[in-house]
Amino acid sequence: MLGLIYIIICIFTGRALLDIVYPDYRLIPEKTYSGKEIHLPALFVLFPFWFFSGTLVVGWLTYFAALALSALRPSDRHPLTAANAVVMITALALIIICALLKKKKNLNTAKVKPFQYKDFLCAGFFILLFFFVTYLTCRSFNIVQNTLRVGYSVFSDFAVHLGMIRSFSFGNNFPTQYSHFAGEDIRYHFMFEFLAGNLEYLGLPIDHAFNFPSIISFMSMSMLLFSFTVKLCGSRLAGVVSTFMMVFRSSPSLFRYLGSLSAGSITKEEFLNRDQFFSYTPKEDWGLWNFKVYLNQRHLAFGIGVVLMALIIFAPLLYEGIKNISDLYGRKKKSGGTAEAEKNTAVKSFISDHVLISSLPRAIFCGVLLGLCAFWNGAMVIGGLCVLFVMALMSSHRLEYLLTAVISVILSMIQTKIFIFGDVIAPEYMYGFIAEVPTFWGSVSYLLALSGALLILAAVFFIMGRGTLRYFLPAFAAPLILAFTVSLTPDVTVNHKYVMLAFILVGIPVAVMVTKLLKSSHISRFIGGVFLLIVLTATGIYECRIVRNIDKDHLEFRQDSDLTKWVKENSSSGDIWLTDMLSNHEIVLGGAMLYYGWPYYAWSAGYDTYSREEKTARMFAAADEEELKRMITEEGIRFIMTDDGLRYGDHYELNEDVIAAAYPVVYQSGDVKIYDTESPR
Is the pLDDT of residue 336 over 70? Predict the structure, then answer.
């Protein structure tokens, strides 16, 4: 119950703060950027703004309150008790204060317009989307008869997610360490896992604690994409189409697969029960581009939603900039040149319209919004700034963009200094992303093979389209340039987030094209629109079926596991565990902090996994007690766990007799033994 109350407090805190610091947000549903009245349902815009803003603020307040309490009282096993009490009371006081300030200042807020018939149709679409997202989300991660089930579509990344969640809900991970590479700093954007861990600590079962904010984040992101599309073109149907295309990706893979089949080579049952993704492009068989990503990386929708908020707020400046440039060009063409006095006036007008700040609250709010998101999803902050940078080139009031960027970068750097103690990874030039042929034409070929008709139609729109929307396309495509030229981590594959962001945004003008055909009174154009929509979404729809089939199988962990219970009750997040290369495991669900878990997770986050692997091998193979104890002390190891996977596996040479001679066994069940390096023999 307290977990649900916490989410509600986040939402109302966001509402209270926005009404004071940026009250203009309530006008967003009223008109398109070109001035046409649309009267979108307020829920589609206001709720996502409240949720994302409030969760960022309340989440950070809770984290830093717990961090401060942990520093003041190191012996306190659960600082979240006091931290939540303090923050909830503070948030409630803040809500009341903001309400009083709004009443005192007589701040007018937009009245909610009654639903129109077309709004009911849109609401019906989002209700169906909600059930669809909830079904796949809960199917991939749930508790049934006291057994935690992790679907095969998500179990890989969930090793880290669950480890981080339990390090907060079961342990005291302050200052925060990476659950699969304990003993160093935290380079992973962990705040969404902290939110889930806190919700579990407040009483929600772990599946609800992770699924609820994931579903709310995805639905909020979807509503913002819908609203952004409608504000750009004025069509609710285009908003539905762009959202539909975001859920079900564009790709030729399904058609290539069907084309490769000979008549009768596959039955209907085999087609419907396929449980492997396509592999026509590199890493496509990971499910890197379809809906599975939102199930696997629960914080991605949260980050995209924050970016959409910033774009919705800044888009009017691009419209204004294009209009000013057009007006200036028209005046020059009409007059055939300007006199000196007129030229000075034009220069002053240009500076006022194109350079100087028009709305300080807008720039500060967006800067803080993006800056606070750095450790919720840092990749989306970078991708969002790329889009805003290109938008600024033709926008009015460009100093607002600069101020937003400065604030967001400063806040991101402050967080980096707090959480990362070692060297931050420097950007590395790496052309071609994961294209098989890393050349310009190789990259183009890869993108076409990956996106199918999407980028082709976007290019057609840019060449033949009319209106201001076409000027958004270079900005929407900016994250693609970043993804194909720069690697910010050792694993360039993580750049797929920038590609996905670009595809979502580029899909907006494509949705407008499809919508015009669907609305046409000519039957041939309507059929063409239906055909394009099928081509653009068929692969994504089929891949959701594949995700469902994959999650028929799952890893199972008993909630009442003796090993998990022992770890929870006898260790804390300050204790480092020396184990085999584990990913999902009962001790991870107990909150154990692994010295060297499955290495891919830590390597892709920028940790020096090679030296730690070498140290791990030396400790397990130590020839005598003195050598073992010296290394154990140097690395700060508290517990050593051995099992048959370690004894008979290929990763390490294990000299368990030395370990047993040096330290007592404090837990034994089946093939599992746990040695405590601090207990006397």
Answer: no
Strand locations in 284-403, DSSP E? none
Give dist(CA 373, CA 379) in Å, integer: 10
Residues 477 and 587 both lie in one domain: no
**How many domains does the structure of the chain reveal?**
3
- N- to C-terminal Cα separation, the chain: 45
Its pTM surpasses 0.90: yes
Whether the bond into 175 is cis, omega within 30 of 0: yes
Residues 542 and 564 in one domain: no
Do 421 and 522 sit in the same domain of this protein?
Answer: yes
Instruction: Please provide residue 574's backbone torsions phi and psi, each rounded to the nearest 5 degrees.
Output: -85, -10
Among 501, 531, 550, residue at a domain's last position: 550
Beta strands at 637-642 and 576-578: parallel, antiparallel or unpaired? parallel
Cα radius of gyration (the chain): 27
Q: What angle do CA 629, 634, 638 make, to 5 degrees?
A: 65
Contacts of 433 (CB under 8 A, 6+ apart): 443, 446, 483, 484, 492, 495, 499
Dihedrals phi, psi of 658, to nearest 5 degrees: -65, -40
| Cα 568 to Cα 590: distance, rounded to the nearest angstrom | 5
Q: Which domain holds residue 54?
A: 2-143+173-228
Cβ 191 vs Cβ 60: under 8 Å: yes
What are the φ and ψ backbone dihedral angles of 7, each rounded to 5 degrees?
-60, -45
Average the pLDDT over 368-397 and give the result: 94
- How far apart CA 222 and CA 48 sit, in angstroms, is 9
